[in-house]
Specification:
Chain lengths: 413, 413
């Protein structure tokens, strides 16, 4: 095998998570051990920062006696320590100037290894860069490292960051159910959970059902057409069983015509990827229940804590996120390019995984939805099979470093 | 001293907290040691449950070999394990029939010790019961145990439950600030924090400033008249310094005429105590910033997790909450009645407290607001003095019992 010597660069992109820095720590850890890599650079704010040559020398920061403690602190720090961006690369065809500029920057910094940690849109960047560099006469290894709380990336059993978000959601929903249970007056609490097209995070609100017994009465996912009439019937049925009803809903609920439940209250603004910003699914349902049933009702939006609540991160998720970054470094060293690292769940009784490289083409811009077998027949709850699938991903707690009662974080100076 | 022999009853009332069960555990622990008390009863759903004789024999539940482990689990369990109510007792004058019925129930169950754990409205119950029983020829000791995340009870240095809520808020706001910092596009994030009349919880959002360096750009409390014009000027000033602006606001912000910022979006419904239900202070400010500045803006309502996020409870708060319950049992045994137990912060360099009984008259229905010295001159932030005052209350973490990645709770069977 030909040995490719030079430098490496790593970036983070898309929405941050509680585990994305663990993957960064894994990539750094792997690259520092790699004798073909001289300097590991970090790009500030993803590809945007790389294009303006906003680089940080990670070898200087981590390649010293404090490596272990610094990488550990980084692994427990929420949000993208290198910053993020939402820049979408142009199509390789017809945008040669853009890519030639990129290649000239690779040459300038002798970048031979390129790592991009992110979700669907970031894998699109990896795919385009792979496509261009395949025929550009500059040898560079391009590897994607998956990251998204949404768990909607294809080709990987689950995504780094999902387990921590799921643990936060399941824990918080348990607490909300306890909180709601104290009064005897009939009341409905609607918990809105992130998930535009895939309901994985909303599924996780039900985890308590097979562990502690605390779970929402109903769980609605974007994988099923949502009907306001059936929803009200479900709420009535729940209220007939007990006074304190808790319901989990995905932000992306749509009726059979594809109209979002929160459409009336959403901003209508779309981001550069054409995603519509949603808001108010929970609030819209709150107002609807109030109007139809007249009972006490409130909505709770778990909001951005779902992706940054590192204080209740899953130890397994943090460890796997680190390992997937480490595996990416090793794969690149072994000559792999044009790949996304994936987590494969191994067959057998216990839970075990291996990390494999999957060809990037076809991964980006595809969405992995919750499968039929994970949703009940009525489309208003999840199956035990779904919960047993997610449960191993939330196991274990991390030992944060606390100072005067507050978690400490890693900071690039 | 005359010895009063008989049974005891304890109840929980008002909004639940992450620490109210620790106070219940403290009361139970103290009473189980008290040789004058035969049976300790718990009232389900506060005084409402007592009136319908919905009692649980706590001596049977806890007075056995499993006492320590059960009390420990109870201490770490969020929300009122005995259930709660919002019932307001009628005035003793002119409602003799109501109170005679209550006394007949005390006699029926030989109740000689009455403990009520709650906030302002619960202390009103204690005060009225004290007033009536003072002249009713039935000897009973009536003690209030303070509880409220709002920290707005008079006569106590701080309230059990506040420290855990403050720790949750400070931790979550740190995480939100990290999350918001990843992009370079100017954006404003408004975090709405509970506090109708007192801004204590909102103050605590700033704790990171003196520990880790993470704190909101501005903090607005209900103790100061709120001006939309000054607010917009502040936001502009913050945006001129850095792109990612985070602002903490109390739900109870009012302008100089007393009109709530969220008035346009509130439900207008008032509860039995005449409190107006507020909603939308953060949302109202989000829409205002959007209109005036046109930048990216969002609002985050921390919502009920503020009072039930026991997974990030303050160890000091849980210990003090237990101790204040324990002290209540001891005080009653010593003949004390018509009192609320208070936490007194002792003079000196380190942090230490003692627990004392304060006469209940005058405590209920008064609100302790954030003092002038804790708010900066511009009324848009808090002083270091305020933060140093709160900081000891969030110190220490608790060791929860986890099962398959989820916290376990105490349940009365």
């Amino acid at each position: 095998m030909e040995i490719l010597r030079g430098n490496a660069v790593v970036g983070q992109s898309g929405g941050p998570t509680a585990a994305i820095n663990a993957s960064l720590a894994g990539v750094i850890s792997g690259l520092l051990e790699c004798e073909n890599v001289t300097t590991v650079y970090g790009m500030r704010n993803g590809i945007e920062g790389f294009l303006r040559e906003d680089l940080i020398d990670l070898t200087s920061v981590f390649g010293n006696d404090e490596k272990e403690s610094k990488l550990r602190l980084l692994s427990h720090t929420p949000a993208s320590a290198l910053g993020s961006c939402r820049k979408k690369l142009p199509a390789p065809e017809g945008n040669e100037e853009f890519y030639e500029n990129l290649i000239s920057l690779f040459k300038k910094y002798d970048i031979r290894y390129f790592f991009y940690i992110g979700g669907n849109d970031s894998m699109d960047t990896v795919a385009k860069l792979t496509k261009y560099t395949a025929n550009c006469n500059y040898d560079i290894k391009v590897i994607g490292v998956p990251k998204t709380i949404d768990n909607d990336l294809c080709a990987t059993d689950h995504t780094p960051g999902f387990g921590s978000a799921a643990k936060y959601i399941a824990t918080t929903v348990q607490e909300i159910i306890r909180d709601c249970a104290v009064y005897t007056v009939p009341a409905v609490t609607i918990v809105e959970i992130m998930g535009r097209d895939a309901g994985w995070l909303t599924v996780s609100s039900g985890l308590g059902r097979i562990v502690t017994g605390y779970a929402p009465d109903y769980i609605y996912l974007p994988e099923r057409d949502f009907s306001l009439d059936r929803f009200i019937d479900d709420v009535k049925a729940a209220l007939s069983r007990h006074p304190n009803v808790v319901i989990a809903v995905s932000e992306g609920l749509r009726d059979k015509n594809g109209t979002y439940v929160g459409e009336g209250t959403q901003s209508g603004v779309a981001d550069v990827f054409g995603h519509k910003y949603l808001s108010g699914t929970g609030k819209a349902l709150e107002l609807y229940v109030k109007e139809k049933l007249g009972c006490k009702v409130r909505s709770v939006e778990l909001n951005i804590s779902q992706r940054c609540a590192s204080h209740i991160a899953s130890r397994r998720d943090i460890e796997e996120s680190f390992n997937v970054g480490l595996a990416a470094a090793k794969a690149a060293e072994g000559g792999c390019t044009g790949c996304m690292m994936a987590i494969e769940r191994e067959e057998g009784d216990g839970y075990s995984v291996k990390y494999t490289a999957k060809e990037i083409a076809g991964i980006a811009n595809a969405v992995k939805r919750v499968p039929d077998g994970f949703i009940n027949g009525e489309g208003n709850n999840v199956t035990d099979e779904a919960l047993r699938y997610i449960l191993p991903l939330i196991e274990g707690e991390i030992d944060l470093d606390y100072k005067c009662g507050l978690p400490e974080y890693f900071v690039f100076n």
